[in-house]
Amino acid sequence: MKKLFAEFFGTFWLVFGGCGSALFAAGYPELGIGFAGVALAFGLTVLTMAYAVGHISGGHFNPAVSIGLWAGGRFPAKELLPYIISQCVGAIAAAGTLFIIWTGKAGNAINNMQAGAFASNGYGAFSPDGYSLQSAFLAEFVLTFFFLLIILGATDKYANTSFCGIVIGLALTLIHLISIPITNTSVNPARSLSQAIFTGGEPLTQVWLFWAAPILGALLAGFIYKTLLQKNDNEDTSNN
Question: Given 35, 58, 148, 180, which residue has the most CB atoms within 10 angstroms?
Fold first, then answer.
């Protein structure tokens, strides 16, 4: 249960911090943090929770990460569903908290006909810059693929894992710097689902892509790392 609570709180913080920065601070007149600030906020949520509870649960905070670690032989199948449920519940709880805060200001309402409403993800007319379904799918697939490669490499027993939380947090920051204009950046099915539930409308019908693309990218990364990149115990680690 401690692992599941750690995943709940870690995913809550990721959604609350990342999506909250997009809702409250990104476009604030003259002092707004913009895309770069939101990207950094997402990275900081993962970095801080990796060190806070990563030693308890492994610090996944993302169904795609759990699935990718399973594909890479780093996570048992029997724990997948409980982790994913905890992550989704944490994300939805964070989105609900954000909704209460957001609607506490006069005039604030969710316009689910607008791209990026309530920090939701989308493609086509619901992409921040109008990117197609194909572009959105490819971006989410590729970015999640590399995110998992980074996670698998940074946490490998042959790596210097002391700084893996920093590496993974910066990787997520870079991912957001690339893709906020494309999809508003997901690479995390729980994060997409939570915002789409409160947004409703077309963003909710498009949430399938933000489950399918990240999961497929994570599966491929796990398979490739395990079969092509991971060193065996009998290999000489001094050889390249």
Answer: 148
CB environment 10-22: b (16+ within 10 A), e (fewer): bbbbbbbbbbbbb
Q: What is the 8-class DSSP label of residue 232?
A: P
Q: Determine the angle formed by the axes of helices 34-57 and 2-24, rounding to 10 degrees.
A: 170
Residue keyed to tokens 């900081």: 44
Domains in the chain, number: 1
Instruction: Return the residue matching tokens 């497929």.
Output: 216
Write the pLDDT tens digit of every residue in 34-77: 999 999 999 999 999 999 999 999 999 999 999 999 999 999 99
Six-digit token string for 176: 């957001």
pLDDT beneath 50, residues of the chain: none
Which amino acid is it at 193?
L
**Cα–Cα distance between 99 and 104 in angstroms, integer?**
8
Structure tokens that stand for 166 in this block: 């920093």
pTM for this prediction = 0.94
| Integer Cα distance of 240 and 236 in angstroms | 9
